[in-house]
Structures are given as structure tokens and as C-alpha cells.
């Protein structure tokens, strides 16, 4: 595969996953707030179901980008990862702790310092930063995972189907144990469940699907419908369960949807290339900053007399656009002091 195709394919996955994250965080609020089975709720549910592929796509792409290239020095690898993840994680944890305090003051609901400390120790200074905490574990384990994959390749030359079977098995075990332990593991262990996806991304990178685009798109839409229907069934018939199984990133329907959309995005779409290349450098920054604009837009739109469905449809592009503009503004001022914050 040529370098330009490689970059475009990776950027397509990165951009779609970033858009899906914004859609997810807007629509998830609607799922919890709107009246169950209303038109607005079903739209939020479908958007939420569509966007659940976001984190699996990010993890699979990370696997392709980190496990395939040779690691010349483990020390150099870790040094680069510290700059890539650890520093932004520390800076943004501080920022969002301050943001949490500010929100508490605005709402006249002060947040105690002990709560901020608990959030940090639990790997969630703000709701979206859990992903970076999970990535710390994946990055730490990358040299060992790469060695394992190379050993398997030398001895057995497994196909992508082998790694897909591992991912399906892990997802099945997660499904069987979901009602037992849910997501109660401490954050240093979160990465364990994502190792199969990490390996799957590397295994599938250079292997195109035998299925056509229409078949893959139809399968993806079917999985989205299944995710949405299962979510409705659980909320309507089993409301005692706090977490919705089909929404979980490690659930079977989300795994199937992620594989379908992965193969769709692996094929370079040249007509979208200019937009993809424009957005791709800002994806990490958009991921990090978008909750600020999510909170602000929610506060502002709540004061406008429009229906819930319209608010949600307005909020999605608004949050994404403001987040993108913030990243572009940062690049324009080109401050060395803040370089690690938005660097993606």
C-alpha cells in the first residue's frame, strides 16, 4: 500500500471516530433526558448507537500504527509515548478539574476537593479522559504485545480471522460477565479488555475485505439498529441495570459494527480527501476540548424555546465546529508553551 493511501485511510478512520465521539456525547445526554420511546429519544438512541464505534476505531487504529512499525528502542518508544499521552493527560486533568470547580460555582453546587481527587484516582477527571488513562496501559504493553504478535506470525502465520476470533471470544466473555462486574475494574486494568481490538487493528490493516461497500454499509446499519433496539429493550424491560449493554464498547454488536465501518474506511475515498486532510491534524485536540463546548452549548440552548430534537441536531455541528475553531486558533497563535496540549 502506498504511503498516501496509508495516510488517507488512517485519517478517514481518525476523522470519523472523532465526529462519532462528538455525536455520542451529545446524543447520550438525550437518551438519558428525553422521554423513553418518544421521537426525540429514538433519534438520540440511533445516533448514540451509530457513534459507539468511535472508541473501538481509535483503539484499532492505534494498534495498526503502533504494532506494525518496528520498535528500534523500547526506551525511545516510551519516551515518545510520554510526550504523546502522559503530558497532555496531566495538563488536561488539571484543566478539567478546574473546569469542574467552575461549573460547580456557576450552578451554585460547590465541588469538594476530595471529589476532584477521587475523580483523578478513578481515572476520570472528566468523563472523556478515561480513554487517555486506558491508553496509558495499552502503550505500556505495546512492546510486549508486538513481540507476541511477531512470535505468533513466525510460528503460525495467523490470519486476521484468528485475531477476530480472539476479539469475539473476549467480547463474549465480557457479555457473559457484564451483569456481574460491569466496568468496575480500576483504571490501570482498563486496557486489558481492549488488547484484542488493539491487535485486531494491526492484523486487519493490510487485508482488504472481500465484501463490497454496499454489503459492509448494510451490515453496519443492521448492527446500529440492533444496538438501538437492545438499548430500548433493556431500558423498557430491565431498567434496574444502570449500564446499557449494547452501548458498551466491548459488546458483541459494537464489535461487529466497528469491523464493518473499519473495512469501509480502509478504502481511500478520494473525493473526501481534501476534507479529511483538513480535519485529521485537529482530531486529538477536538477530542480533548469538545466537552467544554458541549457544556457551554447545553447551557445556552437550554434557554432557547425550541424542541429537544432540534436542540440536539443543532448542538452536534455546533460543538464540533467550535472545537475545530479552537484547535485552529491554537495553531494560529503557535504558542510553544501550549504545544503539547493540542498536539495530535
Question: What can you see in these coordinates?
Answer:
The chain is mainly alpha-helical and 344 residues long. The chain has one domain (3-342). Helix content is 74%, strand content 0%. It contains 14 helices and no strands. The protein has helices at 3-33, 39-51, 54-67, 74-106, 113-121, 130-155, 160-181, 195-204, 213-237, 252-266, 273-279, 283-301, 308-333, 339-342. It starts with a helix and ends with a helix. Residues 1-5 have low confidence and may be disordered.
| Biggest β-sheet description | none
**Gap between N and C termini:** 24 Å
The total of beta strands comes to 0
Shape: globular
Radius of gyration: 20 Å
Pattern of helices and strands:
HHHHHHHHHHHHHH
Name its key features.
membrane; transmembrane; 0% strand; 344 residues; single chain; cell membrane; mainly alpha
Question: Topology, please?
Answer:
Elements: H1 3-33, H2 39-51, H3 54-67, H4 74-106, H5 113-121, H6 130-155, H7 160-181, H8 195-204, H9 213-237, H10 252-266, H11 273-279, H12 283-301, H13 308-333, H14 339-342
Helix pairs in contact: 1-2, 1-3, 1-11, 1-12, 1-13, 2-9, 3-6, 3-8, 4-6, 7-8, 9-10, 12-13
Short description:
By secondary structure, the protein is an all-alpha fold. 74% of the residues lie in helices and 0% in strands.
